[in-house]
Write a structure and sequence with these properties.
By secondary structure, the protein is α+β, with helices and mostly antiparallel strands. It has one domain. Helices cover 18% and strands 41% of the residues. It is globular and about 35 Å long.
């Protein structure tokens, strides 16, 4: 199987919603497994998100779920 070349896009579709399947602690933070539903009608199943302790500090939270929300662009 050939390797795909990275391609840069200007914009993409928005995330409609997501479900957290699993949160696993790692040495540097957390590995999160998500199902993500996109506004385009497509979905991403069992998507991995790595969020570090440093990321959580930047979002000014200790709550992993809150950090995930911010990482995915859900700001209040």
């Amino acid at each position: 199987m050939s390797e795909l070349e990275p391609f840069e896009y200007e914009t993409g579709t928005a995330i409609r919603d997501y479900d957290i399947i699993e949160i696993r602690p790692t040495e540097t933070g957390y590995e999160v497994t998500l199902d993500v539903n996109l506004d385009s009608g497509y979905s991403l199943s069992r998507t991995k998100l790595e969020i570090s302790q440093e990321d959580l500090e930047g979002y000014e939270t200790n709550e992993v779920e809150e950090g995930i929300k911010y990482a995915l662009g859900f700001f209040s």
